[in-house]
Amino acid sequence: MDETRTTVLAVALVALLVGGALGGAFGTTFTDSPEPTPVRGDQTDWHGDGTSSLAQFDSAAAFESYFAAADRHRFGLSLGAGLDVEMASDDEAMEESDGGGDAGGQADSAGDASGASGGDGRDVSGTNVQEAGIDEPDVLKAEGEAAYYAGHRFRSQSGETTIVDTTDAADPEPVATIPASGELLLVPETDTLVVFDGDRLWGYDVSDPAAPEQVWDQSLEADLETARLVDGDLYLVLVDRPDSGAPCPVAGYGDDVACTDVYRPGVQTDADAVYTAARVDPASGELVDETSVVGSTHSSATYVSENAIYLTYTRSVSEYQVLSGYLTGPGVADLGLDAETVDRIETLDGLNITERAKTVELRTIVERWFASLDEEAHDDAREAFDEGIAAYADDRQRDLTKTGIARVSIDGDLDVTASGEVPGTPLNQWSMDEHDGHLRIATTIPRTHGADSENDVYVLDDALEITGSVEGLGETERIYAVRFEGDEGHVVTFRETDPFYTLDLADPHDPQLEGELKIPGFSTYLHPLDDAGDLMLGVGEQDGKVKLSTFDVSDRTDPVELDAAILSDERYSEAVQNHRAFLHDAEHGAFFVPAGEASYLYSYDDGTLTQEKQIDIGGPGVRAMYVENALYVFGESELIVLERGTWEEVDRHEL
Question: Where is the stretch described as Disordered (predicted)?
Fold first, then answer.
């Protein structure tokens, strides 16, 4: 055995130098296999239900070791990598938002989860947000008799936020500017405007909108993932990627976070970052509380409910673990491997070298075995390998890529109160929803080693243990949009057509697929248009053009596309990627969608889409809001005022 070990190690080092040229038969597919055994190298100290408890690191050295192991492991993460390329080409899909983006969402019963309204009783629209009463940052905010617009970031002379006096709704007047620009949150309780300006936060007293005063600022060493305003408290989710040379401490809000204060699961994950949830006093900018959890920036999402912040991370089984698991298990019989080859593979598994080196050497060992066979046996062995590895991985597909979930309570101290795990990876914040003490999460099971992708919806209880699921939606496709509304769910998958699924989630222990509709194109944002939730709008794309669709979901078993409108001159709308760019005027049965060449107002009486107005604002439209009977449309340098209902232009203002 010592001689074999020495030979294997020597070959491994040489193989690593020459790279992965020996691809051989390893880029193959997976099918069915009976009675699966665990993937070789899979970690088993998670609870039997698949969840993991979280604990803080014992030492800075343990933190450093954990991230070093994750870095070595990531060489083999081809299982989930490249999914978007495989699932949709540039001709099939528009450019998408980043992995942890905030696109998508949940609304109140009227389909408008507005982030604000006129504090003086005026009819003022707020940001289109995921959860009613929980505001999200955006470039346009309004309260009382003032609106705040930071859209100048789209222009070369960016760097200002314009304050508009809306006392006379029909004749708004720019009255002041703030020398900071980015996304905004407005805190009515303290008359504070928080400006997220790159790596810096600014707090302004806007009790007199015409004379804003800076009261605090805070630089950030970590990246800002997202922010929320809940009951007057400002919550931030920050992301720091530990430096490989000096990973401790990690950056938090203001001060550093000790590595021993960071929570981690009991198994190795694809950790490449630390996510810090922070509660900040918006009036002073002072940190109130924070907690940190290891995370992965690839295929993760962040969701905030009225009770908690949900942070996710990815746990993947590496290519080496899959290949070695097959070759030392079913592969021995499938391929007829000789004892010496099996011994070399088993010896390789025990070597203290990186998984990259192990993967390269494992390929070399098998290629040498193939080369030792005569031509007929060689061809038969390769075919057997293709079929066997396909069956092995396909049968274990939901164990190969999983998403861990950490719940950070915001009721009192920011404490990690539960953790769990589900197969697959989420799309974005829309993929999760908290309802009646349960968390629902929609995930894509990635295409891997040729095993086709599928899509699942899981329901988890208060302990984040899975209580029920709907599995196998959209085989060969991936999720493009999710919408949870009370006891109902809607999922859009896509590859060549758009399957639109309706789900019954009333029983968390027995969720059911209700109906399915296949249509051309796809939706990336879903929005309910009526109180009953029977009429749903889809915003997406077809043949490279912006597409708007209305869906009748009153019969949950038979959803119907009532109408569709293709914006033939538009290849892009921010609303496709960012729900905050969308405005729903339920009172007048209309909605606003910005696009690249113009902006558009549509009515939807009985589900019939009618273009009421094409608004030329000298370039891409940015945002719209209504104040009383006036609709404001903000562009790069202009503000246009329309009369609500008639949609006639009333005025224009330079910004």
Answer: 28-51, 91-138
